[in-house]
Amino acid sequence: MTEFDPPEAGPRSSFILRAAGGTPVKQPTFSFPVTNQPSFLKLAAAGSIVQIEARHAASIALLTGDSATPNGAFDKPLSKKQVLAKAGPLIKA
After folding, report:
1. Global pTM value
2. What residue numbers bound the domain in which 9 lies?
3. Is the Cα torsion angle 40, 46, 48, 50 positive or negative in sign?
């Protein structure tokens, strides 16, 4: 079994997880819809548009007296089931 220690967690994350009573999982594999430079640039362009639209929505909300962040500083968290429903198509194993 290959254990997955993401770089930001450091090499001791599996040890810490076991010490806390957890079990490390195998490193996942992913299938992203980006296979070449044009498809990457298309995705990057869409990502930049989303940010600008969010600023527009916040500005309009403030101008109309609404809150720019109706849920507070953070989005409402999703359940594991909701996350897997959205990310599942990108996860191979």
Report:
1. 0.47
2. 1-30
3. negative
